[in-house]
Design goal:
There is one protein chain. With about 290 residues, this protein is of the alpha/beta class. It has 11 helices and 9 strands. The protein folds into 2 domains: about 1-155, Rossmann fold (3-Layer(aba) Sandwich), CATH 3.40.50.300; about 165-290, no CATH class. The protein has helices at about 15-25, 35-45, 70-80, 90-100, 115-130, 145-155, 195-200, 205-215, 215-240, 255-265, 285-290, and strands at about 1-10, 25-30, 55, 85-90, 135, 165-170, 180-185, 245-250, 275-280. Helix 8 (about 205-215) packs across helix 10 (about 255-265). It starts with a strand and ends with a helix. This is GlmZ(SRNA)-inactivating NTPase. One of its GO terms (molecular function) is ATP binding. It holds the Pfam family PapZ_C.
């Protein structure tokens, strides 16, 4: 039987994950007091195959009862019940934004600042995060991408890496993305902007990408970049890092950076890694022209 505890930061996507698990035939229970988990596990194991997948949502809404979680995990281990923990996380700024958009208050800051509640919750969850089987960072993840991650783990049984890699293109004239971990400047490559028939296209268009990649320096850069990223990824995973943003920039974020971001995204192992692709500034030149 697969017995899964879903927990993590409030606003990070726990309810969505429980829904996705329910869609793939998990028996799901939300906001269960931790003290009742061993009893539920016992009942499920007694069904002798009738219930093969169980998921429970546990979070700090349980108040003091949440503190019982570690005692409960010890009881499960004593009884020989195997379990997995999914921990949902997101950056503080993302959580604050989500709370403001939904106009909801944080469970720990009903009369105070959302930031204070998040800080307090992070401290409370530090130990359980350290014991998690899977850490899913939803900062830059769309709902459909989060669902795909859950399916990869529980339907396709693929090996899980908690590191989510976002490959991002941007334009230096609009600023380096603030969440960047690695930044690469490709302004040394020939610029399609100065070729009339390519100027209005983007790196998503074949004529532009073919032009950029026709130069030996582009191909050499991509080869060395892929080698370096593949060298770094297992080291980041070993360190416990769960989100990596690789930003590639050119002048306007429309031609060269888009081409190389696409190329890096497709060069990395899609089955082994959780990969996201973003083009931050690809449409900004067109919008600025309309405004002017």
């Amino acid at each position: 039987m697969r017995f899964v505890i879903v927990t993590g930061m409030s606003g990070a996507g726990k309810s969505s994950v429980l829904k996705f698990l329910e869609d793939i035939n998990f028996f799901c229970v939300d906001n269960l007091p931790p003290a009742l988990i061993p009893k539920l596990a016992e009942l499920c194991y007694e069904q002798e195959g009738e219930i093969e997948r169980v998921a429970m949502g546990v979070d700090i809404r349980g108040g003091k009862l949440f503190n019982d979680l570690f005692n409960v995990l010890f009881i499960l281990e004593e009884k020989g019940y195997q379990y997995e923990i999914i921990f949902l996380d997101a950056s503080d700024n993302t959580l604050i934004k989500r709370y403001k958009e939904t106009r909801r208050s944080h469970p720990l800051s009903r009369k105070g600042a959302i930031e204070d509640g998040i800080l307090q919750e992070r401290e409370m969850l530090k130990e359980v995060k350290g014991r998690a089987t899977y850490i899913l960072d939803t900062t830059n993840v769309l709902t459909r991408e989060l669902k795909a991650q859950i399916n990869r783990i529980f339907m396709e049984n693929q090996q899980f890496e908690s590191l989510i890699i976002t490959v991002c293109s941007f334009g230096f004239k609009y600023g380096i993305p603030v969440d960047s971990d690695l930044v690469f400047d490709v302004r040394f490559l020939p610029n399609p902007f100065y070729i009339q028939e390519l100027k209005e296209m983007t790196g998503n268009d074949t004529p532009v990408s073919d032009y950029v990649m026709s130069f030996q320096e582009s191909r050499d850069f991509l080869k060395k970049l892929v080698e370096m990223v593949e060298f770094l990824l297992p080291l980041y995973v070993k360190e416990g890092k769960n989100s990596l943003v690789i930003s590639i920039g050119c002048t306007g974020g429309k031609h060269r950076s888009v081409t190389l971001a696409n190329a890096l995204y497709h060069a990395l192992d899609q089955d082994k890694h959780t990969l996201l692709l973003k083009h931050n500034d690809i449409e900004k030149d067109a919008r600025h022209k309309k405004q002017s």
